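#structure-requests
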Amino acid sequence: MAAIKLQVEARTVLGKNEANRLRRADMIPGVLYSKGEETRHIKVSKKALQKVYRTAGTASLIDLELDGQTIPAIIKELQIHPVKNQYMHVDFQKVKMDEPVKITVPIVLVGKENIRIQPSVLMQQLDEIEIECLPKYIPEAATADVSNINFNTPIYVSDLNVYKDENITVLREPDELVANLIMPTEQEETEEEVDAGDVPLVSKDKDEDEE
């Protein structure tokens, strides 16, 4: 999968006031760092970052275009305002194509529609997993087929496709639970299920008298 491109700009003026000014101008402040190198302060269009983050998340390579250079990187952290749900700051980590990188990828369960045991409820206990590999081997997601899951055979980390990939090191225990199947609980009777005939009606005349 080709890396996604994102244009970023260097920023020389730092501080809280400048960061707030950038956000008002629909720019997001950020940094680009790498082990053994000086951290570079950057800014990026909010609209462009939103588009890239929806596609790449924190598990895909991004080609940052900065000062005429193309720099392979990943989004290491994206700070989002807890109330306003707005992007506040982004951290990019530069990667070297010949050096392993630690990265967190989402876990996707496939075959849910083919689960044979019904009725049942599939419970996903682990949503993402940390792995280490060369950048060219970074997967979009870690997957597991749950078509044959049953009450006595859950899905563990060792069942994920990335665990079986010799190019990827999974940084979780193989016997950690990813998903399991449980019996559905009996639903309580809801108000909608109550017979309408048992509900007292207010007369139209009474309403008109009270107006």
